[in-house]
Amino acid sequence: MTVETKMPMVLDVISENIIKHGSPLALKGSEVSSWAKELDLPAKGEVLFYTGGEYQMLPFIDSLVKTITHLDQGSKVFSMMMGARNILNKTGFSPEKMYASVLAKDKDRYNSVCFKAAKVLQELGYEFCYSGKEELYSGALLYELGYLQDMEDYVKRVVEVIKKSGAKTIVCLSPHAAEVFKFVYPKMVEGFDFEIRTYVDLVWERRDKLAKLQSAESVVIHDSCRLARELGIHQELRDILVSIGADVKEAPMSREWTSCCGGPIKILFPELSHVIGERRVTELKESGSSHILTSCPYCLSALEAGRIKGDSAVVEDLIEFLYRGVKA
Amino acid sequence: MTVDLRKDFVNYAKSLNAASEDKNIRTAISRAVTSYRNTVTETLERFPHTPELAEEVQEIKRQSMANLDNLLETAMASVERNKGKAFYAKDHQAALDIALGIIGKGKTVVKGKSMLGEELHLREYLEDNGNEVWETDLGEFILQLRKERPMHILSPSIHVPREQVAEVFTKFFGKVVPPDIAEEVKVVKEFLREKYFTADIGISGANVVAADTGAMVIIENEGNVRLATGAPPVHIVMVGVEKLVPTFQEAMKVAEVTWRYAQYGVPGYVNIVSGPSKTGDIEKVTTYGAHGPKEFYVIFVDNGRNEMAHEEKFSQALHCLRCGGCMYECPVFQVTAGHFGHTYMGGIGAIWTAFVSGGMEKAAPLVYSCLRCGRCVERCPMSINVPAMIGELRERVIYGKLEG
User: In this predicted model, what pLDDT tens digit does every residue of B218-254 receive, in sequence order?
Assistant: First the structure.
């Protein structure tokens, strides 16, 4: 027997946004792809550069969580919100209005991660195309949150966009996208035979060409769960950093034993997620380095939030760290 | 029909938040995690054959679950052959009814620690039916007095520091018990010793059951199980059917892997009980009830396990040895302890909640608080793919498949 289950509203909002707008937060394609303006990337090519809009949406996640999850879901205010939600459904979720409180510097920072990633790859001699404003989110959260049946329909649209590029290889910035492309899409889409690679993978292959650090900085790697356990990529990160002359310190729990950043439960259990992120930052600092590098948008955001006020720790994506060498 | 889970999520989030602010939980679990990791590393170095043995046990478990009906039949016959009495309880209520049928009213019962007991709310049920029941595991005893539920499957009172133990003991024993662990252990020992020898019935669970011999294998450190199952005239074993394996030899393999990952290193005691106590010393005439129990009962409890065994995507969850290792590696459990759970805890607990203890509605919030980070799988000697099962359960919740 099946029943209708009423789930926390944040799940409805995110799943509907993905299905209707191709982005968990209903960001517009033009906004998600704005980073690429100057680069003039081709729409077709052998290798497709895939962002999935994930880094771009990071600054908005917290606003969404604050707006929706913190409401007492049995209260009158909540019922009113449900009304508001219906309106939003008709008009489309308007991030510009809903997330007006997001700081410009955060928006700029996360938006530029994709730009930096592309620049690093170009510097290493890679050529690639990009779907621009047509690019759709991979649907990883539909998979993660249990919307598998909806995902089966959704992925068809994603594949259509990917196919337009004519690419044979997809390079993913987010390990979550790589995971679903690699393990979930082939089960849902017949003939989904693209070669799935991660950004880390590509950099690793040509790591000898990376600019060396001016002085030996010490860094500590936060292995993303997906990258380390599902995709088996952890030594590569160390190889890359060692090759540019960084002094890589190890946290007590790393590689396939890495501790989760708390990110995956942020939308439903934000406080707890925050506690877990904070603990992970502390654990990473036990390595002896406070310069934390990761290679996953959600880890980046969760660890950044996990820094206690006034904490001297620096949290960066590997992309941001490597880009400094390109710029120099 | 509509099932509104929104309030459940809100309340659950509140309880998780409160737990994550509880300094006792935080300190206790940090200490426990460090000690767990150290002990396991050390004992795996000492007994390096363990991971290979664990793989062998995975296969034993796989075949046992695929063959559950036959194993149950064999085991019941073995118990009867050993002059014990074997029962099969289809569900929760049947298990309680059978137990109460054997025990009756006005009895004193001493009980070993058992997750199945928690699942069935066994102590409360027997008490409500006019019996005096004592938990003999120290941690469970503390919780019995505090009227709380376990916060960890092996260290149930992990969240209660010695000062709070002293407080509750002082009140219960009516004399000052200092916050000194040795003193606290001693006062309980004295109290329970009298109970073991005046009790009418001893109840235990079992870690493994060998179908061929009807041998119940019970691992412990305190010695309470030894006394609770040896001193009273009646011993009742209540055990989930997933604990069945074909042979005695295989049972030993399962037991060794269990205790190694359950941080026992080498356990203080391994009890193997196959029937009532007996002697043939006078004229070779077998007489039952020599020094130990005269009566021996085994209640095999299903309560959703068979259904799980038949679900391809979930049968692996029945391989769980209840070593508790996954919980120590779980970032959510590390800050919330048993609050991330219903009866069974952590990610694997969420799966067991769905099928065995609580149902899908109770399981839903738990299922969504799992990070699906996968570190439990790294630790699990049975490599149970909890994240995959959590994903499957989420799908069922979203599309309203709340019943089996």
Answer: 999 999 999 999 999 999 999 999 999 999 999 999 9
**Residue A132, Cβ density class (10 Å: 0-12 exposed, 13-18 middle, ≥19 buried):** middle
Whether this model's ipTM surpasses 0.90 comes out as yes
Residue in chain B lying closest to A271 (CA): B17
- Residue pair A92/A20 in contact (Cβ under 8 Å)? The answer is yes
What are B289-331's pLDDT values in tens digits? 999 999 999 999 999 999 999 999 999 999 999 999 999 999 9
CATH for A211-327 is 3.40.50
B contacts of A224 (beta carbons < 8 Å):
none
Q: Domain B53-303 belongs to what architecture?
A: 3-Layer(aba) Sandwich (3.40)
| Interchain contact, A271 vs B17, CB within 8 Å | yes
Q: What torsion, rounded to 10 degrees, do the Cα atoms B280, B284, B285, B291 define?
A: -10
Length of chain A equals 328
Distance linking the first and last C-alpha atoms of chain A: 63
DSSP single-letter state for residue A184: I
Q: Which residues of B touch A70 (CB under 8 A)?
A: none
What is the edge-to-edge ordering of all strands in the sheet holding A47-50? A47-50, A169-172, A195-198
Chain A contacts of B369, Cβ < 8 Å?
265, 268-269, 272
| Distance in Å, alpha carbon of B1 to nearest chain A alpha carbon | 5
State whether residue A261 is helix, strand or coil.
coil
Pairwise CB contact (< 8 Å): B378 & A257:
yes
Min Cα distance A118 → chain B (Å) is: 28
Domain residue spans in chain A?
9-61+99-202, 211-327
Residues of chain A contacting B, Cβ within 8 Å: 1-9, 11, 72-74, 143-149, 225, 229-230, 256-260, 262, 264-265, 268-269, 271-272, 275-276, 279-280
N- to C-terminal Cα distance for chain B? 16
Instruction: Write the CA distances from B340 to A153, B18, B112, B201, B392, integer angstroms.
Output: 33, 12, 24, 33, 19
Counting Cβ atoms within 10 Å, is residue A106 exposed (0-12), middle (13-18) or buried (19+)?
Answer: middle
Could you tell me if A299 and A291 are in contact, meaning their C-beta atoms sit under 8 angstroms apart?
Answer: no
Please state, in angstroms and rounded to a whole number, the distance separating the CA atoms of residues A20 and B171.
62
> Domain coordinates of chain B in residue numbers?
6-46+311-398, 53-303
pLDDT digits (tens, 9 = 90+) for A46-65: 999 999 999 999 988 877 77
Question: In terms of residues, how long is chain B?
Answer: 404
**Intrachain domains B6-46+311-398 and B53-303 with the same fold:** no
H/E element, A89: helix A76-91
Token pair of A29, please? Answer: 């394609």
Flag if B3 and A3 touch (Cβ within 8 Å). Answer: yes
Buried b (16+ CB within 10 A) or exposed e, A261-285: bbbbbbbbbbbbbbbbbbbbbebbb
Cα B218 to Cα A193, B150, B221, B269: the distances in Å are 51, 20, 10, 8
SS3 content of chain A, % helix, strand, coil (to 5): 55, 10, 35
What is the rounded distance in angstroms from the CA atom of residue B216 to the CA atom of residue A179? 44
The C-alpha atoms of residue A31 and residue A28 are separated, in whole angstroms, by: 5
Q: How far apart are CA B237 and CA A263, in angstroms?
A: 43
CATH level 2 (architecture), domain B6-46+311-398: Orthogonal Bundle (1.10)
Banded model confidence at residue B81, pLDDT cuts 50, 70, 90: very high
3-state secondary structure of B47: coil
B355 min Cα distance to partner chain A (Å): 15
